[in-house]
Amino acid sequence: MQRGTNLGRLGGYNQAVILDAIRRAHEGIARVELVERTGLSPQTISNVVRRLVDEGLVREDRKTVSGPGKPRTVLQLEVSSRLAIGIHLDPVVMTLVMLNLDGEVVARARHDNPGAGQPDGMTAAMAAAVEELIAASGIERHRILGIGLAAPGPIDAAEGAVVDPPMMREWSSVPLREPLSRLTGLPVLMDKDTTAAAVAELWASGRQEPENFVFVYLGTGLGAGVVLDGAVLRGASSNIGEIGHFPVDEEVPLCECGKRNCVGMALNFGTLFQQAAETGIFPSDAELGDRHQATESIITLCRKAVEGDAAAAAIVGRAARLVGGTVAQVVNILDVDRVIFGGPLWNGLEELALPILHQEINTRFVSRAIHGVEVVSSSLGFEVGAIGGACLVLDDALSPKASGLLLGS
Ligand SMILES: [Zn+2]
Fold this sequence. Notes:
Elements: H1 12-24, H2 31-38, H3 42-54, E1 58-63, E2 72-77, E3 83-89, E4 93-100, E5 105-112, H4 119-137, E6 144-151, E7 155-156, E8 161-163, E9 173-175, H5 177-184, E10 188-192, H6 193-205, E11 213-218, E12 222-228, E13 231-233, H7 263-267, H8 269-278, H9 291-307, H10 310-334, E14 338-342, H11 346-364, E15 374-377, H12 384-398, H13 402-407
Parallel strand pairs: 3-6, 6-10, 11-14, 14-15
Antiparallel strand pairs: 1-2, 3-4, 4-5, 7-8, 8-9, 11-12, 12-13
This protein binds zinc ion.
Pfam families: MarR_2, ROK
Protein name: ROK family transcriptional regulator
Organism: Arthrobacter sulfonylureivorans
């Protein structure tokens, strides 16, 4: 068990297989098609479907199809019957969303500077934000499956804690999952924000064939979430994707790991700010300020670059090339065919950086004669971490997984 907490699939493996098939059939699906698609017996399908209808998770619709034959009865997911809450904990801002079973955002909220640097304050602020969100949504509490928490890595998945959190440097380990569950009375799952973002993309894409992609998260740090053969990879301790210390062939400021060539430092807000101050984009006596002010400055730098300021474009372009070179090596190791960029910094960078990243990744990809690498922006915007948190809950409750196969049916 790597993930520490499991919400428990809604009603076992067969039910998860059937719910998954109904969820993916947006036009509705008949019982006979469910038999074909799942390989389960008509009797099992019938029993499980009756239970799903009784529980309000699925409804029956009479549908008239064109051509001869009587109208058929199709089953459809009752998308608002259950909901999931996602929280993305970022050093600057806490983002919350509530998703229905279709992965659609039905309520959202943002709060600045969560918790004022104290673990108790942090969990109390999260719990209060959850209560506010539930009250504002008007959703009955019993319909909420749970909370998914997307936190900056590294995380201690077994303890449900963040380790050396950037928003609370004086604390080495801050347990969040259990206190948040205690305060809200709801089950809580936790994962790294980069992995949660990858889960969100997997839910949003709805592709039938197994996917292979890397989600690159650009925020206060640089991290990656990995999906191979349709499965989200986590690693031995759920800390996969720490790509910020990949070496680059240019000197960048000293990293906290002790090296002078870490790609993460090329993207570091302090590094970018200093370069901007040296070239006169910001006044030479300007200061980086707190995380909030630093973020604003970097957004300004990106905007100037996009608007045509040559010095700003050179700074941002250099950072994009270094990130592209690193991501190309990740792509070479994993042989994915898609890279998705997102995170709080991405919106400002997208226009300028996307062509540079595409070029760097595809020219350095060793197997480019076999297939290209699609380089795209996340369609989920700045909420991708929070949506990912909620998708952890949907995934845990609804998706049939390999672990379910081991348990049998
Ligand atoms: Zn480093």
